[in-house]
Amino acid sequence: MSDAWNHRQIRELAPALAGGEVSPVALTEQLLARAAASPLNAFTTLLPEQALAEAETAAREIADGHYRGPLHGIPVSVKDLFRVAGAPTTAASALTARTPSPDDAPVVAKLRAAGAVVLGTCNLHEFAFGTTGEDSAFGPTLHPLDTKRSPGGSSSGSAVSVAAGLAFASLGTDTGGSVRIPAAACGLVGLKPTAGEITCAGVIPLAPSLDHVGPLTRSVADARIVYHAIRDKSPSPILGKPTTGRLGCPRPYFFDLLDTSVRVVTEQALTRLTDAGWLVTDTPIAHAADTAVVCLHLVLAEAAAMHAEGLEHQPEDYTQGVRLRLELGRYIQAEDYVRAERGRQVLTAAVDAALKGQSALALPALAIPAHRLGTEAVDFGATREPLRNAMLRLTQLFNATGHPAVSIPCGTTPDGLPVGLQLVGRRHQTDQLLAVAEACEAVLG
Amino acid sequence: MTVDEWLSAAETDAQRRRLEDLTPLLRALAKATATLRAAEWNQRAAGVHEDPPSRAGSQ
After folding, report:
1. pTM greater than 0.80 (yes/no)
2. Residue ranges per domain, chain B?
3. Is A261 an annotated catalytic residue?
4. CA–CA separation, A395 and A156 (whole Å)
5. pLDDT in tens, A28-64
6. What ipTM does this complex have?
7. Closest CB from A300, A342, A352 relative to B41
């Protein structure tokens, strides 16, 4: 079979599968072979026998006229933080058992019910507590465009599996940006839906009040296909399919410290959107400068609580960076967690206020292009910032507030590295955000 | 407990637990905690009660 389909979108492939032009079995065989031979370390477990059996079932059902929809026969991958039947849930940690899971997390079961073929589980930053994918019991995930660089994380393997043509979509998790950050670094679409829209049951928690499940895909249309398959609730109302609209640009704080090439590409994208008829206006978010301290106290305290048992009994089994951050969380005082919760309420109201009269907010998703492996700090002019802080700065606010946010590709740096534009919508209106994102994608694509 | 008192106690405890590498992270956290405590939106018993902004619903 030709490999011409490997980098296509689900929306293009689905009609070919439905019409019998492409065989799910041949497609799955090809991707399994590519994944097994890939040097990028995207997968922690491949499930060849299981995936081929699922593909054969899909082929039979489609041939018999029982087509389930656009995910039927589509090979996908899942971050190794979700229960996936037949694969161990390792969280990329030496701490976890290597016993295969007997069942699927509900979102994985929904993917299968839609006909998707699960190829295997994907590498990640240990326990999703990091932004690079470098701290993993399986070794670092490598960027498909430059193997000396990180694809971003924590959903590093998920992003690489899609970007490298090893899967057509992947499920990730996003606690501070872990879907949107690798999506931006790898030139993909990464969606964090509204908080609570997609169940996190069967997913190892990091910080439960901030954790979200979301897809990584090659287009907004594909993100919508996966999102519709896995969400718990009925569709949110779409107020109309926009071709243009109003974008609020929160420059203070979010544009203060950006890599020069990211700034140039982002400004060019905003200009292109303006030229296409979008009204882009400066729209500050009140108290945005407090984002990092609020999120830090929430995530550290919650993650320490989730890992109290592991820290007591198997501390040496964590990678050093993850263990130290978890230990740090044990020193957060209750009164400061309460203050951070108050800050979350204030910031939520501030984002709601900024969205008034806007189709969406528009800002960069990631302040830097894909970084070189081993980087510890980033220089923004005279300001040096720890890498983790720099990578989280533009995304984590919307985990705390629960607003839906999506990163879409908006250009490349002079070195050919992707840059992501982040769009943020109203809470409980993820479909409307996707409609705005699709219209922007049509201009920027 | 003030942030300085907390940091001193935390550093001592981390050294007792042989987690010396935690010291720079604790110092960075202390700065963040001081910023958090200084935020103008913090509620204080000396002030009047104020209902928090609602997270329910959407706009």
Report:
1. yes
2. 3-46
3. no
4. 16
5. 999 999 999 999 999 999 999 999 999 999 999 999 9
6. 0.93
7. A342
